[in-house]
């Protein structure tokens, strides 16, 4: 979908689909997989779209883990002239994460998540924010007692399995807010499938321009 915002200096990307509930047994594998894909500054999406190509200041992905299955969303704000190129790179990374990840990249992601655990519990506010979801979503309260070990147990096969289960680039919905007259020709040339056009005023519920 293209949401037309005439004159936009950037194109806002949201690429998503249905993810998983917080109670999933795949929680740790999903966290590791997403850290590799787009959950940290050194993740693939950031390194590709920002560091290698300079299309954006930041690209990321994440799972909205709730009582029932929440969304998976990959996002970025991309310079208008590179909208079609950015979609190519997004798609490339979303396909690549479905293949086996290198062992060193897996180890780095697990270590990143393990080292981040103590910092989340340094303040009373941090403790509350970490434990409230456990109560709300029915997660055992000893979650943090075994988290380090459970991150460590995630394998390459686990990461590939959850990536293939939850991330299918051919089934994800792509929404791009930007200047239609500039970005539409390049996007259509990629033959992404059906392209739906919406006006930004319709999406925001704004009254029509008199």
Task: Report what the structure shows.
- By secondary structure, the chain is an alpha/beta fold.
- It has a single domain (2-204), classed as Cytochrome Bc1 Complex, Chain A, domain 1, CATH 3.30.830.10.
- Helix content is 48%, strand content 18%.
- Helix 2 runs antiparallel to helix 3.
- The chain is globular.
- What is the domain tally? 1
What proportion of the residues form beta strands (DSSP E)?
Answer: 15-25%
Mean pLDDT: 94
Report strand order across the widest sheet.
Answer: 3-4-2-5-1-6
Number of DSSP helical runs: 9
Helix content range? 40-55%
Give structural attributes.
single chain, 210 residues, alpha/beta, Cytochrome Bc1 Complex, Chain A, domain 1, six-stranded mixed beta sheet, 48% helix
Topology:
Layout: E1 2-4, E2 10-18, H1 27-37, H2 44-52, E3 56-63, E4 71-79, H3 83-96, H4 103-119, H5 124-136, H6 143-152, H7 156-166, E5 173-178, H8 180-189, E6 197-199, H9 200-204
Parallel strand pairs: 1-5, 1-6
Antiparallel strand pairs: 2-4, 2-5, 3-4
Helix pairs in contact: 1-4, 1-7, 2-3, 4-6
Q: What would you say about this model in short?
A:
Helices cover 48% and strands 18% of the residues. It has helices spanning 27-37, 44-52, 83-96, 103-119, 124-136, 143-152, 156-166, 180-189, 200-204, and strands at 2-4, 10-18, 56-63, 71-79, 173-178, 197-199.
